[in-house]
Amino acid sequence: MPANFPSPKRRSLLALTVLPLLALTATACGYGSEADSAKENVAAKGKALSADTVKIGYFGNLTHGTALVGRQQGLFQKELKGTQAKYATFNAGPAEIEALNAGSIDIGWIGPSPAINGFTKSQGKSLRIIGGSASGGVKLVVNPKKIKSLKDVKGKRIATPQLGNTQDVAFLNWAAEQGWKVDANSGKGDVSVIRTDNKITPDAFKSGSVDGAWVPEPTASKLVAEGGKVLLDEADLWPGKKFVITNIIVSQKFLKEHPDVVEAVLRGSVKTNKWITANPDEAKAAANKQLEQDSGKALPAEILDPAWKSIAFTDDPLAATLDSEAAHAVKAGLLEKPDLSGIYDLKPLNKVLAAEGGTKVDDAGLGVK
């Protein structure tokens, strides 16, 4: 069934009411910030696969560390051989889904909520989730002078990255579990939900425009550096402290036409996650170097170190938790009850995992038949 998110026009009107400083935000142009292939640190070598290029999207978040490290270390390009990897960075999931639908990217790292929304709005025709990437790395950080306990969150102004994004849904669900009433679309209620771009949330927090934020890393650690206190780690709300925060998606058209290229990217992802596990300090430095190349600014150690430590990188898409996150969006009134049958195609990933000596991952009954 189609998702019930507000129209782009209504989202724009809502954004205008959030914070005056939102007007100062510099967001990516068009479908994201495209990399200049001439500046890539690794060139395509060897015979091309079935496509000359593959366009890969990701966010400048540490929760997209697999993409950051795999790109920086040339691990994707190594698997792609003569097929050139081209990259685009995004600030939010809806823009990446739009790019995927338009053919501006072929494969992307993205959070569960926009993946669910993209799948349902296209009636199951636009994308497949083909792998996992990360779990954790999301926190509720607050001003300790205004909020000393969880119950003190009531009546305060809490930032989330975007209406209907993964953290927005998680916060709305948590607030509902406290017995608080919040209108999901307007963000008004017992708690005021202020949708704010992660790039300016630290400034909003510092100025007092918001009292806290439910955000991914490294934004959470940036708030701590500004005097914030971690009031809640979202991982503590999930069984085994595991929940999907980043998936890998692909357009169904590209998957059908270039399965060898998709498999090569997945092989690069699996090898990247293995390298991250074996070389945590080097991986952290590589992710930071890529962030610096993408944004022009590296993260200082006091932000990078705690942020990186809170993220677990995994090939498992943790499909059961995605189903739960969809249920949270339904409960919040942001999504009609969806049919997620076929949202996953994990056959290419399981093929790669078998070849690499890994363990088969499960689609929780939501895979293609």
TrEMBL record:
<feature type="signal peptide">
    <location>
        <begin position="1"/>
        <end position="28"/>
    </location>
</feature>
<keyword id="KW-0732">Signal</keyword>
<keyword id="KW-0997">Cell inner membrane</keyword>
<keyword id="KW-0813">Transport</keyword>
<comment type="similarity">
    <text>Belongs to the bacterial solute-binding protein SsuA/TauA family.</text>
</comment>
<dbReference type="InterPro" id="IPR010067">
    <property type="entry name" value="ABC_SsuA_sub-bd"/>
</dbReference>
<protein>
    <submittedName>
        <fullName>Aliphatic sulfonate ABC transporter substrate-binding protein</fullName>
    </submittedName>
</protein>
<dbReference type="GO" id="GO:0042626">
    <property type="term" value="F:ATPase-coupled transmembrane transporter activity"/>
</dbReference>
<dbReference type="GO" id="GO:0005886">
    <property type="term" value="C:plasma membrane"/>
</dbReference>
<keyword id="KW-0472">Membrane</keyword>
<keyword id="KW-1003">Cell membrane</keyword>
<dbReference type="Pfam" id="PF13379">
    <property type="entry name" value="NMT1_2"/>
</dbReference>
<dbReference type="InterPro" id="IPR044527">
    <property type="entry name" value="NrtA/CpmA_ABC-bd_dom"/>
</dbReference>
<dbReference type="GO" id="GO:0042597">
    <property type="term" value="C:periplasmic space"/>
</dbReference>
